[in-house]
Design goal:
The chain is mostly helical. It contains 14 helices and three strands. Strand 1 and strand 2 form a beta hairpin.
């Protein structure tokens, strides 16, 4: 005789409601659970830190923890307005923080912590068409000329600028480079997957000039006995902020006040100069580490003078006359 199946729940109650559990969670507790999940996704340490930092900005805005009843779209709309009008942040900066909050709240909705898809009601703000700044060759020469190469930090910073221009790496990738990643014989630097934005290993070429200076720098820093390539004057690995501050200082010393002198500016500048010097966009895409060509186009923003110079060199009429 077949045994009768006993229903575990009454009809219409096939699963246990999670409302009692989720309603007991505060916003800060939900974020802790969100970050627990994020830490299992093999994200870079920088990305994890960015999540925490962006949430700290939000915590400072709301002032205190919230219950699920208090979490609604108006809270996040207010945060957006606060960033744009009170803090006067650029739309680009505000959107970085908005995207973090949307990812977090989307997670809360999917997990059943909140009942409303609040993330659909506040979105990144519109930004003006990107105009990426780049430095001219003469400005880069002025920057290099104000660096005191007799000092260790000056010599190191000159090589950092050359590596940024030559390899087009991001600042987070630069400070993560290890001595073992540098192949002076082959002329390559390997960027490890855990440190790249795309989570893929990338190999970037370095020119003869950079190789020569890197060889000298690596020999000079052997006594520090640290695996990282770029080190502070007392032999510790560098933070991105340290590099940014140094570049800003050199920009002021060189009298470059109408442009931001930053690691990302060198990435834009190097990409543009690569094309201006005859490089093709497909190899540039591989060096930059972008999966889509539309991102490469954003980096190559030529001035009218640049276009005219290129046109004079490559005009179809040159093949006729």
């Amino acid at each position: 005789m077949q045994k009768k199946t006993i229903r575990k729940y009454k009809r219409g109650q096939g699963t246990i409601s999670t409302n009692k559990v989720t309603n007991e969670l505060t916003l800060f507790e939900m974020f802790d659970r969100f970050m627990t999940v994020k830490k299992t996704e093999a994200l870079s340490s920088r990305t994890i830190t960015d999540y925490y930092n962006n949430f700290e900005y939000f915590k400072k805005y709301i002032g205190e923890d919230l219950t699920t009843e208090d979490v609604d779209a108006d809270v996040f709309r207010g945060f957006t307005g606060h960033m744009l009008h009170e803090l006067e942040l650029s739309p680009v900066t505000a959107n970085v923080r908005i995207r973090t909050m949307r990812a977090f709240i989307r997670y809360c909705y999917i997990e059943g912590f909140i009942n409303t898809p609040i993330h659909e009601k506040f979105k990144p703000v519109k930004t003006p068409e990107d105009t990426l700044e780049s430095l001219t060759p003469s400005e880069i020469k002025r920057l290099l000329s104000v660096i005191d190469e007799d000092m260790y930090t000056g010599f190191r910073d000159k090589i950092i600028i050359l590596v940024l221009l030559d390899t087009l790496v991001r600042i987070s990738e630069l400070v993560a480079i290890k001595r073992s990643n540098v192949d002076l014989e082959g002329g390559f630097i390997t960027l490890e997957a855990m440190e790249t934005k795309t989570r893929k290993t990338r190999t970037v070429p370095i020119s003869t000039k950079t190789i020569k200076l890197l060889k000298e720098y690596i020999k000079e820093t052997e006594d520090f006995d640290d695996e990282h390539l770029f080190l502070t004057y007392d032999g510790h690995d560098m933070f991105p902020t340290t590099v940014r501050m140094s570049l800003t200082k050199y920009g002021k010393l060189a009298g470059i006040t109408n442009k931001r002198v930053s690691p990302h500016t060198f990435r834009h500048s190097g990409a543009l100069l690569y094309i201006m010097n005859g490089g093709d966009p497909f190899s540039l895409q591989k060096i930059l580490g972008h999966s889509h060509m539309n991102m490469v186009r954003k980096y190559i923003q030529m001035t009218d003078t640049d276009v005219r110079r290129q046109h004079n060199t490559f005009s179809p009429l040159n093949s006729i006359f």
